[in-house]
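ingest -> validate -> predict -> emit
validate: passed (alphabet ok, no gaps, 146 aa)
predict: started
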Amino acid sequence: MTKVKEIRPGVAVVIFNEKNEVLLQKRADINLWGIPSGHVEPGETVKDAAVREVLEETGLLVKILRLIGVYSDPSSQIFHYPDGRVTHFVTCCFQAEVIGGELKVVSPETLDLGYFPVDRLPVDILKMHPSWLEDALNPTLQPFIR
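emit:
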């Protein structure tokens, strides 16, 4: 097993459209679909990072509505990149609404974008994202800690 050499703060943002479909991004680094996500930069809040990442990856300006959960379980949060890096993420997952912009591929990190019915997600999706989506759909107001 490869030893984890870094831990990074991450953010992910669940966005539903008016049909209650979820926005997914086909990521260039791993060629998988997932909830728009990324890293927190030095000097940045997790909320600001979430808004920035969505804008950079989708062209959409969003407003954060709520914290869905904080995810740090090594079974799902240790990520092996194709280039050999191994990173343990502690990810804050938010729900947001679109308040501006235009959905379009604006970053080399993004291969494609699309809204999907929550009961028909792509088979090639990041392994932890369906459980984050399940938490987003849960009517509880308390954030999950997993």
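The chain has one domain: 6-145.
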